[in-house]
Amino acid sequence: MEHKIKVLECIRQGQIGGGESHLLSLVENLDQSKFQPIVLSFTNGPMIERLNKMGIETHVIYTEKPFDITKWKPVKKLLQDKQIDLVHAHGTRANSNTLWAAKSLKIPVIYTIHGWSFHPDQNQIVKKLRIAGEKYLVKNSTQNISVSVSNQQSGKAFIPSFNSVVINNGIDLKKFNPQNTYKNIRQELNIPEDKIIVLFIARFTIQKQPLALIKAFAKAVSLNPSLHLIMIGDGDQKKEAIEIIAQSGLGNNSTLLPFRQDVPDVLANADIFVLPSLWEGLPIGLLEAMAMGKAVIASNVDGTSEVIQQNKNGLLIETTNLSANLANALSVLSNHKEMRERFGNEAINTINNRYNAANMTRAIENIYSKTVNSHTPNS
Fold first, then answer.
1. Domain total for the chain?
2. Model confidence pLDDT, tens digit, residues 230-259
3. pTM, to two decimals
4. Which of 172, 220, 242, 250 minimizes the C-alpha distance to 323?
């Protein structure tokens, strides 16, 4: 019987976010007759539970720090015990905590960059350190994967020697299918059927700009009282978000919830999906919303701008004057049902043609096979 390639899929956390959704889709779609995925996460969480239910072997080596030297030996022991053939690191923290162990055992490392750890809003010292860290990781990984062309280009702008292949994130079209039957979330949350639901599903962090969205929504709802905002997620800006909602008197027009597992159900009940990020790699939450046929509003940043064609399958807004731009876009879309439907239909076509999980997985499997076949322990 042909030897299965043992792949250690590494991720920074067990919470559900973009990189974690990507890993779940990849593991679910992998050809299990050729590949045996084992998952290493650096924190526990609902993703680990999901993987265990799927029968996937998982391990947690706890750390919330990148380049945590104290974790390198436990990772090395795991690689040896499980006789791993290949490491696939998803994101900076995962790679920085597995690369030394893999290299010391001459195991090839594939690094998927879901978004760079350096961002435009960082101070120069932090940014320089992050760029140096990324430079080290991409140089020492066997193969780098960029999730979008713009993600690749922004890497090359700061790391001239950077090389990667582009494999777009893919969505599981069986799971995110508008033709399926879904729960009535409006009923669960006591939101009347005639309300236009604006949905945000993301971490409450500066990157995702939840506070700018709340301010924009306050303006939009004053012009169109039929709007209702649902925000799903957790993060360091959640407390402030709750305070702004209370101060703005938006209690009756908004619902805040922690992360949930039933994302397709929530999306099915929404009318407009909003992602006002300051930067992105290739946002999976946006792709999931589009797969469900939702009209989307998102900021004109790396990755996102590759997916959305202005006024065809969604609306792109500039990050300068973000709240004002967002309020305007919400007013336009909430008042034009036919525009929402047109964007939603085009969004489904975009995902079916360019961003489905089956195609993504086949492309990654090819890289796994080529990397293992061309790698000899002495190379």
1. 2
2. 999 999 999 999 999 999 999 999 999 998
3. 0.89
4. 220
